[in-house]
């Protein structure tokens, strides 16, 4: 884009710029009202220990289960250690549950440690948070019931494959309902608590899940493709 000063029809001292299409750019960004954002950020202490611990817990969880599950898929070490893939998968699933409980606890501690925001401290925001938590719980529970414990906690990586892809509720309305249901729960909790830091932590949860999906999706498809190829050769 070329910025060429032109005559200012408003008669003030701010230059009017020509954009690349020859039009006038009359937007004076210095006059934008940043008060809401400033009010939001002043309620967040990014250096607070509880906030840092929560961030670490959020990022660590999907990293941990992806690394361990891929290692198991390559080596079958856990299956040998526990005497079979089912017990190994149950043990990893139990560890993942504990890690998720700690993540939720650390996020709650961080939200309670930092200030509420009066802009969010309203009845309609509270009930929106309740609605999100109900929705999130439905998605999480529905996903667990559809997949079962083994399917939920990476049984594919242990060689315990499903006969066919799950397409029923809630997978027929959204992909990865367990992840996005969990994210909705955290967002609802942040709204109920009128917590700006809760919104930031929820955004980090969403990003960490998005990254995890980028790794898990193709790898899971590869596992089932390998099974299909084996069956063709049998």
Automatic annotation (TrEMBL):
<dbReference type="GO" id="GO:0032259">
    <property type="term" value="P:methylation"/>
</dbReference>
<dbReference type="GO" id="GO:0031966">
    <property type="term" value="C:mitochondrial membrane"/>
</dbReference>
<comment type="pathway">
    <text>Phospholipid metabolism; phosphatidylcholine biosynthesis.</text>
</comment>
<keyword id="KW-1208">Phospholipid metabolism</keyword>
<keyword id="KW-0444">Lipid biosynthesis</keyword>
<feature type="topological domain" description="Lumenal">
    <location>
        <begin position="70"/>
        <end position="81"/>
    </location>
</feature>
<keyword id="KW-0949">S-adenosyl-L-methionine</keyword>
<keyword id="KW-0472">Membrane</keyword>
<feature type="transmembrane region" description="Helical">
    <location>
        <begin position="46"/>
        <end position="65"/>
    </location>
</feature>
<feature type="transmembrane region" description="Helical">
    <location>
        <begin position="186"/>
        <end position="209"/>
    </location>
</feature>
<dbReference type="GO" id="GO:0000773">
    <property type="term" value="F:phosphatidyl-N-methylethanolamine N-methyltransferase activity"/>
</dbReference>
<keyword id="KW-0808">Transferase</keyword>
<feature type="topological domain" description="Lumenal">
    <location>
        <begin position="151"/>
        <end position="193"/>
    </location>
</feature>
<keyword id="KW-1133">Transmembrane helix</keyword>
<comment type="similarity">
    <text>Belongs to the class VI-like SAM-binding methyltransferase superfamily. PEMT/PEM2 methyltransferase family.</text>
</comment>
<keyword id="KW-0594">Phospholipid biosynthesis</keyword>
<dbReference type="GO" id="GO:0006656">
    <property type="term" value="P:phosphatidylcholine biosynthetic process"/>
</dbReference>
<keyword id="KW-0812">Transmembrane</keyword>
<dbReference type="InterPro" id="IPR007318">
    <property type="entry name" value="Phopholipid_MeTrfase"/>
</dbReference>
<dbReference type="GO" id="GO:0004608">
    <property type="term" value="F:phosphatidylethanolamine N-methyltransferase activity"/>
</dbReference>
<feature type="binding site">
    <location>
        <begin position="134"/>
        <end position="136"/>
    </location>
    <ligand>
        <name>S-adenosyl-L-methionine</name>
    </ligand>
</feature>
<keyword id="KW-0256">Endoplasmic reticulum</keyword>
<feature type="binding site">
    <location>
        <begin position="216"/>
        <end position="217"/>
    </location>
    <ligand>
        <name>S-adenosyl-L-methionine</name>
    </ligand>
</feature>
<feature type="transmembrane region" description="Helical">
    <location>
        <begin position="125"/>
        <end position="154"/>
    </location>
</feature>
<dbReference type="Pfam" id="PF04191">
    <property type="entry name" value="PEMT"/>
</dbReference>
<comment type="function">
    <text>Catalyzes the three sequential steps of the methylation pathway for the biosynthesis of phosphatidylcholine, a critical and essential component for membrane structure.</text>
</comment>
<keyword id="KW-0443">Lipid metabolism</keyword>
<keyword id="KW-0489">Methyltransferase</keyword>
<protein>
    <recommendedName>
        <fullName>Phosphatidylethanolamine N-methyltransferase</fullName>
        <ecNumber>2.1.1.17</ecNumber>
        <ecNumber>2.1.1.71</ecNumber>
    </recommendedName>
</protein>
<feature type="topological domain" description="Lumenal">
    <location>
        <begin position="1"/>
        <end position="48"/>
    </location>
</feature>
<feature type="intramembrane region" description="Helical">
    <location>
        <begin position="49"/>
        <end position="69"/>
    </location>
</feature>
<feature type="topological domain" description="Cytoplasmic">
    <location>
        <begin position="103"/>
        <end position="129"/>
    </location>
</feature>
<dbReference type="GO" id="GO:0005789">
    <property type="term" value="C:endoplasmic reticulum membrane"/>
</dbReference>
<dbReference type="InterPro" id="IPR024960">
    <property type="entry name" value="PEMT/MFAP"/>
</dbReference>
<keyword id="KW-0496">Mitochondrion</keyword>
<feature type="topological domain" description="Cytoplasmic">
    <location>
        <begin position="215"/>
        <end position="234"/>
    </location>
</feature>
<feature type="transmembrane region" description="Helical">
    <location>
        <begin position="85"/>
        <end position="104"/>
    </location>
</feature>
<comment type="pathway">
    <text>Lipid metabolism.</text>
</comment>
